[in-house]
Amino acid sequence: MTNKHWLGALALSLPAAAMAQSGVTLYGVIDTALTYQTHSDPNGSALASLQQGGEGFLSGSRFGLRGSEDLGGDLSAGFVLENGLLADTGKLDQQGQLFGRQAYVKIGSKRYGEVALGRQYTTANTMLYYVDPLGVGAAPSNAWMVFLTGQRYDNAISYTGNYGPLALIAEYALGETAGKGSAMSSVSLGMKYASGPLVAVGDFQQTRDSMSRAARIYLAGLKASVGRASLFANYIHSDRDAGFDSSKGGTDTATITSMSTAATATNRAAFNSVFGGSRRDDFFTVGANYTVTPAVTLTASVMHDRTRADAFSGNRTTAYGVADYALSKRTDLYLALAYDWVHGDWSGLFGNATTNWTGDSGKKLDGRNNQTTVMLGMRHLF
């Protein structure tokens, strides 16, 4: 049993999978972990806690409702309302939104595809699900690529179609800014090709902030199944205009979430800080999972990002491993270890207390260059 089993059951794949029946289903997952993390402040102190950044290592905790209605003649309608929650405190996740993970209504057919309206995953996040060893994890140590891709669009209109081995998603998110048609809007196209043991994906995504500055994403990835093993590789190129500010997009940060808020005078600097000049990131992931027995799955991965801007050059790398033991089809226990390190101009990222830092100007980060995380967790699916 791989980690994909769990996320797939939560309908993170293409929406067409939910069209086989009429009715409403309650579903969800709770992932909670005891966590030990080094270099959690500028003094280098360690921290023992429940969760990392409010998340378990494998899955974001959630509950949701999804439903479908057969309208006859191969036509059906449906909806998804999905809440994100922080299991350590019981608070809402995703900026405190009630249904911050997903909230949309859809109509379509198996033959011609579906149209969906509402808050939906970015096409980049959806395509990464197929070619990431954890199906896009949850904790900051394994999911920081979403600082570049974002995870969800508000005000989104999407078309999803399946044509034999080829699936595609075209999506447009309205900026809803009077007099500025492009401000805070997003446009994207994702494609997946699956044949036998191979899955290949590609994606293009462009998002604009309140000043119509753009962030562009180009993504390619591959998964290959070989016996008990699955091998994964993906590449993301991110190209941002000078001053692109993901915090200037209202509730959903330029219609993209999980692109952490830019540094301000009252806010710590982040990996996703605003840069005064144009910024380029090249992000690589390679990994594998191996089914030792039907109950035991081992996963390992290395992630690396290279950031370049005017007068700025820095890198971040993460290596992690997970041993997962399934007690049943719904409950598993896991041990996860992650080691993060930075160098170049990203040095001092972990546990930093620097404020008002903008990437290529102002104060340098004053934290540590590496961080080790150990998480002992339990996940339950319902």
Structure summary:
The protein has four helices and 17 strands. The chain has 382 residues and is mostly beta strands.
Structure description:
The protein is mostly beta strands. Helices cover 6% and strands 51% of the residues. It has four helices and 17 strands. It has helices spanning 3-9, 123-131, 140-143, 146-149; strands at residues 23-37, 47-50, 62-72, 75-84, 102-109, 113-121, 152-163, 166-173, 186-195, 198-208, 214-226, 229-240, 279-293, 296-309, 312-326, 331-344, 370-381. It has a 16-stranded antiparallel barrel. A hairpin with a 3-residue loop joins strand 5 and strand 6.
Order of helices and strands: HEEEEEEHHHEEEEEEEEEEE
Number of strands: 17
CATH class: Mainly Beta
Measured by DSSP, the beta-strand proportion falls in over 45%
Unreliable sequence segments: 1-20, 249-267
- Subunit organisation of the chains: single chain
* Structural class determined from secondary elements: mainly beta
Overall pLDDT, averaged? 87
As a percent range, the share of helical residues equals under 10%
In total, the number of domains comes to: 1
CATH architecture: Beta Barrel
- Ends: how far apart? 17 Å
Structural key phrases:
single chain, about 375 residues, mainly beta, Porin, 16-stranded antiparallel beta barrel, 4 helices, 17 strands, about 5% helix, about 50% strand, disordered N terminus, Gram-neg_bact_OMP, Outer membrane protein (Porin), signal, porin activity
